[in-house]
């Protein structure tokens, strides 16, 4: 991983996470996954390292990492165990939105406890009838004096069971000029009246990451919980946060791919056929070379998206590219790693079997890859990313 432009302090943070992953995480993953035991001790380690405060400003007790450093940390976590990265990802997006768009009162209320992990954040966006098309959500927030009443169902809420504060997208009326719904973001506390956890979704992977339905049945929240007190600004605020989320999930996909390549390389150095280890066979060498090249390319594209976001430049196209490419690479590298393992790759005692089940999440999470392709195409066609593309015309 290239950290040549990181400060000494930033490199120390990345190295501290790498040591934690090497000494505390990797030796326990297989047992925790096999027994489906919630990793309480590892979660305590994440809190001690301050990783729930990756996107929280220092003034509120967080690490306030620059986006490229944040991406590097997410990759290291995911390379050890993607589950740990999943605990941090949506939480960091919520913290970023509060830190960037929230009022001072909202920052003071939530960020210090989010930095320590005492409060954990989740995203309540997707609905049964509105996935990628968030403009079609039906969850509505209705003014009621000094409060709003929220009604609707949100699904696929990652960490929704454990979360205490949920960034929730709602409709708050219509724009009189365009006729389109005004979308607003609220910080909804789990303990608020009318908020409940519905169904739990059982997934092919990430069994220790809770993914649930959140029901809002006339949930009463203070008007002061609207992000930034800006009605109708929810989509703009959310898209800014999702750029961070896409960089985080791209970094996590790179970490998964790195883990898969490491497993394939190690197995190839131990497994013998025809009197030599299989990494001596040209066919295996060519496959490993392809895997390594894709991994490094995905890492560099993700780093470039993180650099652009950090610089305050428009990063939706590069963020979409990073998420698209890194997730596709993760799926391809994991499949190639399984081929290197042969039949053993299909056996649950081998790490690659779990990674093979986890990889598809990155193809559909944080916007499906087809949606990300549309984001890329629109930026190409409107000319707003001409400098990034560097086309000769």
From TrEMBL:
InterPro entries found in the cross-reference section: Acyl-CoA_DH_CS, Acyl-CoA_Oxase/DH_mid-dom, Acyl-CoA_Oxase/DH_mid-dom_sf, AcylCo_DH-like_C, AcylCo_DH/oxidase_C, AcylCoA_DH/ox_N, AcylCoA_DH/ox_N_sf, AcylCoA_DH/oxidase_NM_dom_sf
Q: Which residues form the Acyl-CoA oxidase/dehydrogenase middle domain?
A: 122-218
The record, for Gene3D superfamilies, names: Acyl-CoA dehydrogenase/oxidase, N-terminal domain, Butyryl-CoA Dehydrogenase, subunit A, domain 2, Butyryl-CoA Dehydrogenase, subunit A, domain 3
Domain named Acyl-CoA dehydrogenase/oxidase N-terminal is located at 7-118
All residue ranges annotated as the Acyl-CoA dehydrogenase/oxidase C-terminal domain in the record:
232-381
Cofactor(s) the protein requires to work: FAD
Q: Which PROSITE patterns would you find in this protein's record?
A: ACYL_COA_DH_1 (PS00072)
Extract one GO molecular function annotation from the record.
acyl-CoA dehydrogenase activity
What is the similarity comment for this entry?
Belongs to the acyl-CoA dehydrogenase family.
Report the protein name in the record: Acyl-CoA dehydrogenase
Q: What is the lineage of its organism?
A: Bacteria, Pseudomonadati, Pseudomonadota, Betaproteobacteria, Burkholderiales
């Amino acid at each position: 991983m290239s950290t040549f432009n990181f400060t000494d302090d930033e490199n120390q943070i990345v190295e501290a996470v790498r040591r934690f992953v090497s000494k505390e995480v990797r030796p326990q993953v297989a047992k925790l996954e096999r027994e489906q035991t919630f990793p309480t001790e590892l979660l305590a380690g994440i809190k001690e390292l301050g990783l729930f405060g990756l996107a929280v400003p220092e003034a509120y007790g967080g690490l306030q990492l620059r986006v490229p450093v944040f991406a590097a940390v997410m990759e290291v976590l995911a390379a050890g165990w993607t589950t740990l990265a999943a605990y941090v990802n949506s939480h960091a997006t919520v913290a970023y939105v509060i830190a960037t768009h929230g009022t001072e009162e909202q920052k003071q209320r939530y960020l210090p406890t989010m930095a320590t992990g005492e409060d954990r954040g989740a995203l309540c966006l997707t609905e049964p009838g509105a996935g990628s098309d968030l403009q079609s959500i039906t969850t509505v927030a209705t003014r009621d004096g000094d409060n709003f009443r929220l009604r609707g169902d949100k699904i696929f809420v990652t960490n929704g069971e454990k979360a205490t504060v949920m960034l929730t997208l709602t409709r708050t009326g219509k724009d009189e000029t365009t006729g389109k719904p005004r979308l607003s973001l609220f910080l909804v506390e789990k303990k608020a009246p009318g908020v409940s956890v519905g169904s739990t979704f059982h997934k092919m992977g990430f069994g220790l990451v809770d993914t649930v339905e959140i029901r809002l049945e006339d949930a009463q929240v203070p008007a002061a919980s609207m992000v930034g007190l800006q009605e109708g600004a929810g989509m703009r605020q959310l898209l800014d946060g999702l750029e961070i989320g896409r960089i985080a999930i791209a970094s996590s996909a790179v970490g998964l791919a790195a883990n898969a390549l490491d497993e394939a390389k190690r197995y190839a150095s131990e497994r013998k056929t025809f009197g030599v280890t299989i990494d001596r066979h040209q066919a295996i060498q060519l496959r490993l070379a392809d895997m390594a090249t894709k991994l490094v390319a995905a890492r560099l594209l993700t780093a470039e998206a993180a650099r652009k976001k950090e610089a305050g430049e428009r990063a939706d196209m590069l963020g979409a590219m990073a998420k698209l490419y890194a997730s596709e690479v993760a799926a391809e590298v994991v499949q190639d790693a399984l081929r290197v393992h042969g039949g053993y790759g299909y056996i649950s005692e081998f790490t690659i079997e779990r990674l093979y089940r986890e990889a598809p999440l990155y193809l559909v999470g944080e916007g499906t890859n087809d949606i990300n392709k549309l984001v890329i195409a629109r930026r190409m066609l409107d000319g707003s990313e001409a400098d990034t593309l560097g086309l000769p015309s």
